[in-house]
Each structure stands twice: as structure tokens, then as C-alpha cells.
Amino acid sequence: MERLPEFLIWYAVFLFQLACHEGAHALAAYWGGDDTAYRGGQVSLNPWPHIQREPFGTVLFPLLTFFMSGWMMGWASTPYDPRWAAVHPRRQAAMSAAGPAANLVLAAISFGIIRALLAAGYFVAPERSSFSHMVEPSAAGAASFGFAVGLLLSVSLNLNVLLGLFNLLPIPPLDGAGIVQGIAPASIGEGMQRLAVNPAFRIMGLLIAWQVFTPIARWALSAVLSILHPELTYN
Fold this sequence. Notes:
Blueprint: H1 4-31, H2 36-39, H3 48-53, H4 55-69, H5 82-87, H6 89-119, E1 123-124, E2 136-137, H7 143-167, H8 175-183, H9 186-196, H10 199-228
Antiparallel strand pairs: 1-2
Helix pairs in contact: 1-6, 1-7, 6-7, 6-8, 7-10, 8-9
């Protein structure tokens, strides 16, 4: 119960970024001529259609990972017509790129708000930083509200950076593989598609991607922190 307020902020950020990510996929597909996700109600920032489609990845798994590890993981998916993708591979690539792009835009917005509040003196750099604690309220700010806002913005910035970069890895079933599938020669694209629909390789691909991404994640979070507080050095 002591962590419930923190969980609620994490989960609100998680659901919002997930809805933006999947909604961007659905909107790009709709603009490209595939209304599969549109008919499912997923061209929306409402997270409910995504929760209905993937309740384990959007509710149970985030709950478990937060209370077991202190941070939140999960997933959702956007349906599309594979026949449409085969006929319009460039449009499929655009659809695949739209989700990570949405995450990186949200990260940029969060970064801009944090920098503005730092410049205004509402936030200051913390003595010790973490994934969810990249700023803290100054003496002039209301402590409890300021910590909540700082937590929300820190999580939004870091979570969107990581999810945007992670999904760009060209490993099935991640979005980066869909981008490659759409712009690469047909033989490569067909191979990517076969791997992406193979349940065993989907699990293997995620495990490989996580191993590949771990050093990238450390570098990305360190880079974000150094850009946010260039005058300080954190371990």
C-alpha cells in the first residue's frame, strides 16, 4: 500500500505511452489503406481497446513487474491485414515506424517540460538520480506535488526513450523488423515475415533483443541524464 501512489503514476504513464504507440500504428495503417485496427477501435488514445486485446500484457504483467522489480514492463499489439502489407510494403514500414516515433516524440516533450521547469527554478538536479528520480522540487516548490510531477516526468522521459529505441531493433517481432521487412528486398522481407509469425522465434527474438539492448539502454539513460544535467556527473 505504501507504493500504491507510485504505482498509479507509473501505470498512468505506461497506459498513456502504450495507447500512443499502438494508436500511432493503427493511424498509420488507416492512412495507408488498412482499416483493420480502425474497425477494432484502436485509432484512439483510449487504452481500453488495447487492454481488451492484450489483458495480460497491459494489466497483469505490468502489475507483477512493478511490485517484483520496481519498474514496469508490458506490451500490446495492433492488428493489420497481412495481404495489405504484402501489396504495400512501404506503407507497412511506415506503420511499423509510427509506434517508436510516437514514443520518441513523447520523450522529447517530457524532456522539454523538465528543462523548462528546471530553468524556472521549480525543479533542481537531485543528489542521486534513478530511472524515476531525475529531478526533485526546489525549496520553493510544494514538496509532495513536486515529487509526484517529477516522478511522472522522469518515468515518461526514460520509459519512452527505452521503448522507442528498443522497438527500433531490427529483430522480429519488434517494429524495427517490420521497417526492414517493408523497405528491404522481397526475399529479406519474406524471411522477416516468416520469423515474425513463428511463435518460438518470437520468444527467442525478444530474448535476443533484450540481451542486445541492455548496453544500449545503459548508454541511452546515461546520455539523457548528462544532457538534462550537463553540469553534474552521476555514477
